[in-house]
Amino acid sequence: MKILKILFFVFLLSISYNSHAAKVDTLAIPSVAMGKTYNASVVLPNSYLKGKAKYPVMYLLHGAYGHFRDWLKSTPNKMTVKDLADQYNMIIVMPEGETFSFYLDSPVNKGSQFETYITKEVIQKIDQTYRTIAEKKGRVITGLSMGGHGALSLSAKHPELYLAAGSMSGALDMGGMLQRDNSDQVKKLMEPVFGADSGKQELYDANSVLNMIDKIKANKMPLTIDIGVDDFLIESNRELHRRLVYYKIPHDYTERPGAHTWDYWENSLPYHALFFAKVFKENNVSAN
């Protein structure tokens, strides 16, 4: 009988906790640019369901080989994103970026136009569907690996859309990646974006965050960048940091113990959420 009472008590606690946890939507977002529809995961803080306030939004991008649900299913603690939405009272949107899009508009494949998709179609759909602060001051963007590249690239090219940006273990130099691993498998993965003749260094350079310093400097956008000391992408991140320092561009840069793993990204994401929360506060932005 005592065991049954304990189990019943735990069950009640579970019900109480779940009733006060963030809510997850799966939202279909059509793309006119690509002629198809993708899904996005949208985490709404618990407070969203209780009032009529408008909320700031953090866009959170997945990495290569991944899809839109990665941040919800792959962190060791499956409540990580939901807890952060509740803690900082913001909506967190995780859109689809396909396995190797780099979140850019392919010059050779009309079926891979993810810069247009994220900046024009996803944001518009989110602002139409939810109570968001539907302007620059209400949006931030970050991501892991390929998503880190995407967040820095999209914010550099479209500063009118985002208040701040971040990158976790960013794949910031596509040409450098191929130099490191020039296998047929990697070339095949990059074909949908860069075409079969994907050995043209100038094409990679034109789309590399490392070569967007002029845009980044002009934007004066708060940036947070971090990477694990055992991550195979660390040199390109260090190079970006060096260039930002050389051109006197303010930014946060951190190297922490860890590698290119979900353990690292689960640990990193709360720092990004805190960074963005401070930026929102400095700009008098909150759910209201």
Q: Keywords, please?
A:
288 residues, alpha/beta, eight-stranded mixed sheet
Strand composition percent:
15-25%
Structural class: alpha/beta
Q: Outline, from the CA principal axes? A: globular
Helix-residue proportion: 40-55%
| Order of secondary-structure elements | HEEEHHEHEHEHHHHEHEH
Strand order of the largest sheet: 1-2-4-3-5-6-7-8
Brief rundown of the structure:
The chain is of the alpha/beta class and 288 residues long.
Q: Could you describe the 3D structure shown?
A:
The chain is built from 11 helices and 8 strands. It is globular. The chain has helices spanning 2-19, 70-73, 80-88, 114-129, 146-157, 174-180, 184-194, 201-206, 213-219, 234-246, 262-282, and strands at 23-31, 36-44, 57-61, 91-94, 139-143, 164-168, 223-228, 252-256. It is 43% helix and 17% strand. It has an 8-stranded mixed β-sheet with strand order 1-2-4-3-5-6-7-8, with helices on both faces. By secondary structure, the chain is α/β, with parallel strands linked by helices.
